[in-house]
Amino acid sequence: MGLLVCAVDIDDKKLHLAKSLGADLTFNAKSGDSTARLKQETGGGAHGVLITAPSLSAFKQGIGMSRKRGTCALVGLPPGDFPVPLFDVVANCITIRGSFVGTRQDMAEALAFAAEGKVKADVELQPLEDINNIFGRLKNGDVAARVVIDYVNKPLSEQTHEKEEVYAH
């Protein structure tokens, strides 16, 4: 779409993934003032900010990264209330909107992007037998993108056993 895409996270592995998927700029929110750095690199801040992290500090940073007349969409859902910096929002005419789910039009547009080859999905295919290990990795934040459970293919141990039977006959 010709946009300058910036990714902000606290995990360098996820930032590396974002870069490999096409992010132009990446910022680690734990390393210095990522809000100031983003504003400097973009010439005033982001026109649009999409916050998917369920973190109040991410919400605050996202609004701070918005430029004048920018839009900040809140998708993550952290617990508790979110105190909005009213002066900054009003003085900079920032639009804040929440989005719990997309519309049918949003889905149609997303599918059109995918059909045109503009979507890069980074998935890790894992067998169902590894589900406990996968949950442990998710809990520890050791999954870079998405894990897809393979229900169709049999575990490698069963596949090897079947091949041995075929060769024996």
Keywords:
169 residues, alpha/beta, Rossmann fold, 2 domains, three-stranded parallel sheet, two-stranded parallel sheet, 7 helices, 7 strands
Describe, in plain words, how this protein is organized in 3D.
With 169 residues, the chain is α/β, with parallel strands linked by helices. It folds into 2 domains: 6-115, NAD(P)-binding Rossmann-like Domain (Rossmann fold), CATH 3.40.50; 123-168, no CATH class. It is 40% helix and 22% strand. The chain has 7 helices and 7 strands, in the order βαβαβαβαβαβαβα. It has helices spanning 12-20, 34-42, 56-65, 86-91, 104-115, 131-139, 156-168, and strands at residues 6-9, 25-28, 46-51, 66-74, 95-98, 123-127, 146-150. The strands form 3 sheets. Strands 3-4-5 form a 3-stranded parallel beta sheet, covered by helices on one side. α1 (12-20) links the parallel β1 (6-9) and β2 (25-28). The chain starts with 5 loop residues before the first strand and ends with a helix. Mean pLDDT is 86; it is low at 161-169.
Brief digest:
This protein is an alpha/beta fold.
Count of discrete domains:
2
Find the CATH topology of the largest domain. Answer: Rossmann fold
Strand order of the largest sheet: 3-4-5
Please report which band the strand proportion falls in: under 5%, 5-15%, 15-25%, 25-35%, 35-45% or over 45%. Answer: 15-25%
Question: Helix count, per DSSP?
Answer: 7
Mean pLDDT: 86
Largest sheet: 3 strands, parallel
Radius of gyration: 21 Å
Number of strands: 7
What structural class should be given to the helix and strand makeup? alpha/beta
- Per CATH, the superfamily of the largest domain is NAD(P)-binding Rossmann-like Domain
**Measured distance between first and last alpha carbons:** 57 Å
Low-confidence stretches: 161-169
Task: Give the helix proportion (percent range).
Answer: 40-55%
Shape: globular
CATH architecture of the largest domain: 3-Layer(aba) Sandwich
CATH class bucket of the largest domain? Alpha Beta
The SSE order reads: EHEHEHEHEHEHEH
